[in-house]
Amino acid sequence: MAILGNIIKSFIQLKDTFSSEIEHTKAQEEVLKHLLEKAKDTQFGRHYKFEDILNDDNSSEAFAKGVPYFDYNKINEEWWYKLHEGDVDVTWPGNPSYFALSSGTTGTTSKRIPVTDDMIEAIRQAGIKQVFALNNYDLPADFFEKEIMMLGSSTDLDEKDDHLEGEISGISASNIPSWFKSYYKPGEDIAKIDDWDKRVQRIAERAKDWDIGALSGIPSWIELMLQKVIDYHKVENIHDIWPNLKVYTSGGVAFGPYEKSFKALMGKPVTVIDTYLASEGYIATQVRPETDAMQLNTDNGIYFEFVPFQPEYINQDGSLKDDAPSVTLKDVELDQDYVLIISTVSGAWRYLIGDTIEFTNVERAEIKITGRTKFFLNTVGSQLSVNKMDAALRDLEAQFDTTIPEYTICAHRAEDGEFYHCWYLGSELKNADETEIAKALDASLKAANKNYKVARSKALKGVKVKVVAPEKFYDWNARNKKKGGQVKMERVMGEEKFEDWEAFILES
């Protein structure tokens, strides 16, 4: 009998019984007030008159009018650079204990995003919320006695002056509470290995020593790790090694593109729970099994604003125009893509995180990630967002009985002067008829997107497809950024980057 598991499960159930439902709009008002109050005497707070905003009858409206939008480059050039020169109380009281390194999905140069002690606590509280939400899932008591494999970046953080630097998953894992360490795998020694291939090799060698009940990590790297374990032990699926694996906590990207290839590595069904942990904070987590949408963490260190994702509000580089209107949680609508804007306890203010979302349930503050502002392909009016591309590739998987976990696309002007959408699909499909795949892809996009259909009848000449092994995408990331951790593949490339990509494919 799972005595400890029953105790933990009973505690979670009891906590849920006495917990009240969050009033998300009210929670956001309180978060904004807390942020402004705590940061009013910082350099940023004095410059933008936070004291006046707090005293305004409508603080949220005054905040939106009084503080401009920032992306990483703008806030770093105007404010965060001071942190590296020894200034204190810049955009948040004191100095950050950590900087999260992130090259995102488009660059090779790491961003250095402040992570304060307040943010570490906010992430911890969001993690506790996720644990208590497990009460909503039909999990047996013995699940709560199993170990959890968290595959992120290295926890061996770099010491720089008065702070530590690393990817957010490594920072988070290095701050796990002591009571959790007996559950946490691969354990501190292996987690500190910086070389991703060596770390995964050690995981494969030790895999049979662990009784893993849950996995956590970005889908692409989790799949590669699972395949390595399966190959090393010469078994058919991961449940031959970890028979009690019941939960996978996904994060960083939409799980949809990986669903079919992930299931192929399983021996039995696994509950997938989506989460949204970015370098800038723990944005949202799935709290119930009836939906795969995630609930915004509205009461926990992040104030959210939303800009309707419409071409007239977006610059060519994916940044926001200064006069783009924003709404707060109380005014959002269903069936509308929004650019996500956050202000946080790490001193990010009206910050463009780069993601687009849509609401699936306004009252519950539940969202889905729909894409990236920089990955919105609007060349010649085609208006393709990542979620539309993902949906089309799910159609291809069904039509051609394959998996396509990775892809990238470029709107490319060919030698004939015409624009084509050039797709590279990561698939193990043998003897692929790329012409037929291109026709099917084109038809799916036309059926689902009227703007794309109009573009195809006018300035967009056609679709070209090349099928390559999924490993090519991982090798590209390894060459340009790094394997594992928070690294994700860019879905849309500019022509210059696309030329490098095509040269890389020819070389490899």
From TrEMBL:
InterPro entries: GH3, GH3_C, GH3_M. It comes from the Bacteria. Residues 391-496 form the GH3 C-terminal domain. Residues 298-362 form the GH3 middle domain. Transmembrane segments: none annotated. This is GH3 auxin-responsive promoter family protein.
